[in-house]
Amino acid sequence: xxxxxxxxxxxxxxxxxxxxxxxxxxxxxxxxxxxxxxxxxxxxxxxxxxxxxxxxxxxxxxxxxxxxxxxxxxxxxxxxxxxxxxxxxxxxxxxxxxxxxxxxxxxxxxxxxxxxxxxxxxxxxxxxxxxxxxxxxxxxxxxxxxxxxxxxxxxxxxxxxxxxxxxxxxxxxxxxxxxxxxxxxxxxxxxxxxxxxxxxxxxxxxxxxxxxxxxxxxxxxxxxxxxxxxxxxxxxxxxxxxxxxxxxxxxxxxxxxxxxxxxxxxxxxxxxxxxxxxxxxxxxxxxxxxxxxxxxxxxxxxxxxxxxxxxxxxxxxxxxxxxxxxxxxxxxxxxxxxxxxxxxxxxxxxxxxxxxxxxxxxxxxxxxxxxxxxxxxxxxxxxxxxx
Length: 387
Known about the structure:
With 387 residues, the protein is mainly beta. Helix content is 4%, strand content 40%. It is built from 2 helices and 22 strands. The strands form 3 sheets. Strands 1-4-3-2-11-10-9-8-7-6-5 form an 11-stranded mixed beta barrel. The chain has a 6-stranded antiparallel sheet with strand order 18-17-16-15-21-22, with no helix packed on it. Strand 13 (225-232) and strand 14 (236-244) form a beta hairpin. It starts with 8 loop residues before the first strand and ends in an 18-residue tail after the last strand.
């Protein structure tokens, strides 16, 4: 059976002649919608990465943590129009490695979508990806209309680092059904062409610069955007956000609470920067439009605000009440739909504390957050380490 085929997976797609969707590459995060045959529970966040390969294809993989699922390691890659497989599957329903049947055809690509099926008619297995600039829908059907996996991913980064194509073809499972011993399957995984590369993608250490805060997670590796906070129940949240900057006035940094992502409207925004004259600016703002520059607001009081620049790091610290603003922050929100934040980094300098902020371009993102129990929504590899 093919029950766990999309858990712990890595997908390598290597077709030179295809044009892939414009906004495909980057880091994504999403929570699966549980189904009777889907192995994932609905309160776990899946981190999903997609990068271009140097031969014109692309590679996709997750960074599943052991509390979601263990026992699977997989790679898929495409040559001509056939999707091949390397790895092994854990069978939930027995102690054996699951039988594997892999023979997926690339059926269709459009400027916003990709479809694979096990036959040209797509009457059996099908896998669809639909991607817009800030959302990626992934739908896997075992046999219509049975959903194996359905996830809406939100963009975390635009990282499009090109990965060198590995032309070596290991002794992998051909497109047919097989049963393997666990030891044989594990040895096979070690031969998969991108296993070593994938294992290096999780940062060894994310430095924890502000040790006075209880929590720290790096939301984006490309701009090294870090979010620190300490929750003091019942109502106080102490926050710090940081990012590298070439000069103290070269960058502004912001965070929005309760966004209707991908729109900014109704977000309670905190934005901090240093002007060329050295003035520290802490601004409580909101967005009146779905897209567009935020405006100053009195919805949230930001107290004890400090904007600092030390060793090339711009840091913005402030305190706020949980129950203030258009979007009060629940200390332990339900997993679905969760409580969302947006973040952004923009270029300066900004001349004073009232000027309209410059556009952030692609250095912005989204994620859900739980300020009391962050381990419910954050993966451990994003955790900062105190060094």
